[in-house]
Amino acid sequence: MLTYDYYCEVIAFNIKQRREIKGFTQSEIAQCIGVSRKTILDIESNKTSLKVKTLLKLADCLSCNINELLYEPSQALSTGDNIVSMLSEGGIALIGTKKEA
After folding, report:
1. What is the Cα 87 distance to its own chain's centre?
2. 97 lies in some domain
3. What is the pTM of this model?
4. Per-residue pLDDT reduced to its tens digit, 24-69
């Protein structure tokens, strides 16, 4: 079974990859969601916890569905569904546990 740490790494990677594909800087995304550039750096480096509200704002700024940030493109959508299920069951921190964004 895949661990929470694995899912957190996937989410951090997907956020960074989506931002780069869209051609946005960390500063632009930070401004869009109302956080500092350092917070975006920490999110993309999996050094901070990510609130669901922040994840939703990121998906909106990156013009993508939240599921696109929750699962690996090579995996079935069920991985993202598993994360959503875990969230509804226990309200886990999405990325790490060091500090909240």
Report:
1. 13
2. no
3. 0.71
4. 999 999 999 999 999 999 999 999 988 999 999 999 999 999 999 9
